[in-house]
């Protein structure tokens, strides 16, 4: 089981697999069992935005155990949250913001429950 951090420019937090493009993120979601997914919205001019990943999660049923929205775009966070909120199954927790420092420290130390 892996944790995915999708972002085109931020540094990968310890304990996460980095996806620099929406296609990399979708490939990981399709191929791996995912515990935590942290999504950015603005993925650069040559890529789709994070709401395309949110849309694919819903359409293809690619739900991880938890989803965080770490984007600095308030409009992007709102768009992704609204896409996901109405469709999230019982086994997935959706957070309308980034993972906290305590959780990031636990993941880095390898002590989070999977």
Automatic annotation (TrEMBL):
InterPro entries: cREC_REC. Residues 2-85 form the Cyclic-phosphate processing Receiver domain. It holds the Pfam family cREC_REC. This is Cyclic-phosphate processing Receiver domain-containing protein. It comes from Paenibacillus typhae. The lineage of its organism: Bacteria, Bacillati, Bacillota, Bacilli, Bacillales.
